[in-house]
Amino acid sequence: MGSVNPQNVAAAINNIARLAQVALVGGAAVWGASNSLFTVEGGHRAVVFNRLTGIKETVYEEGMHFMMPWFERPIIYDVRAKPVNIQSVSGSKDLQTVNIGIRVLTKPNAYKLAEIYRTLGTDYAERVLPSIIQETLKSVVAQYNASQLLTMREVVSRDIRRILTERARFFNIVLDDVSITHLTFSKQYEAAVEAKQVAQQEAERAKFIVDKALQEKEGAIVRAQGEAQSAKLIGEAVQQNPSFITLRKIEAAREIAHTVSQSGNKIYLPADSLLLNLHELEVNIPKK
Q: What is the pTM of this model?
């Protein structure tokens, strides 16, 4: 066997050391490059936590940003409005049980993300919204009677939104919209309301019947007065001129003759029964 050249061994060791150094430096460079960039997607904002100085006040908007590897890490917040549905059982001013549900659109104040992270963390909505919404619903509902909650629903919604907006602003949360999704009462109250509505409808119907009877009575009185006046006028006309009755007979005979002439059926009846015996009528001409 040939002897190993010490110089060749030393050269090989040096080459391996150089390769390891290059690989280490290259790996560190790749790791540093991959961990020194972070991306903020659309509809999001970010703050950066530094291991030495803590959370930074700078809010990073959409796009790619630099950070110090290992020393810093980004905290991403979704600043788009999200719906939150809350159900609550409250008591009205007249001690009725009210089941109310609201839908709230909320988002964090993008300029206060550093403070939100310090005080509430990333799950700020779960920490804050259920408690302040429940408290607000109970306080607002207690100011109205059950009937007012139905008839003044828009006013109640505005009160809830005003109070919730003020409460949420304290926690750097923005409310875009507040709406009442449903409003129900106990079965006993709903039955009482239904019975009241039925009673009101019956009362309105009875009132209509009474008004109709009064109108019919007044109409009958007017018709009777008109007929009496008509009879009085006819009597006076007959007294002044006996031929008035003869004139009426002639008019009646003319109408009957017109009706019979327009009929397709041929019927033979005596002229006196149809008031057509005009030649027998006596006409009295008053003397001047």
A: 0.61
